[in-house]
Recover the amino acids of this structure.
């Protein structure tokens, strides 16, 4: 009896396997494949496209005059140029350039080895309304406040910063051309 039962069991397994494998293909019919539509970006624009044309306007002249400044004007005639041509050289006074270079003030509050602590201090000072920055120099991170053109304002801030941080900072001239 075992052989009859075994043969029926094997036959049933074969029929079920064929049904599982073949029937979905037969009943499904033609399979449709979904393809995603992709738009490609052209590497080079079409030459046939018209380009936009812009009209170039002449600059407008303003009738306002500039304030008087300490500028010296030298007139030199050039021997190679014609007799009518006059070469004009404009020279600014050296005191004006010095005023520009020393016109600002900064407070160097402290120099820290740990840049994370310096960044945290700067973030805290910025929350309090100070114009705080860091500057990397020789392995140290300097905490700098400013620049500002008012020396008296920076002196007041120096006293306030000493109360807040406990560090006695230095008031230095700010040189914008060589910070």
């Amino acid at each position: 009896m075992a052989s009859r039962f075994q043969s029926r069991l094997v036959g049933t397994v074969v029929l079920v396997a064929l049904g599982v494998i073949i029937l979905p293909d037969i009943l499904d019919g033609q399979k449709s494949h979904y393809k995603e539509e992709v738009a490609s970006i052209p590497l080079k624009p079409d030459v046939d496209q018209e380009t936009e044309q812009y009209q170039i306007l002449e600059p407008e002249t303003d009738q306002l005059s500039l304030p008087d400044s300490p500028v010296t004007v030298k007139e030199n005639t050039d021997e190679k140029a014609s007799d009518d041509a006059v070469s004009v050289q404009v020279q600014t006074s050296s005191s004006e350039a010095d005023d520009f270079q020393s016109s600002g003030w900064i407070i160097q509050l402290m120099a820290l080895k740990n840049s994370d602590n310096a960044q945290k201090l700067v973030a805290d000072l910025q929350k309090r309304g100070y114009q705080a920055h860091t500057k990397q120099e020789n392995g140290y991170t300097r905490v700098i406040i400013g620049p500002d053109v008012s020396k008296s304002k920076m002196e007041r801030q120096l006293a306030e910063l000493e109360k807040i941080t406990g560090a006695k900072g230095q008031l230095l001239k700010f040189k914008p051309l060589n910070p």
Summary: The radius of gyration is 41 Å. The CA atoms of residues 41 and 47 lie 15 Å apart. The first strand starts at residue 71 and ends at 76.
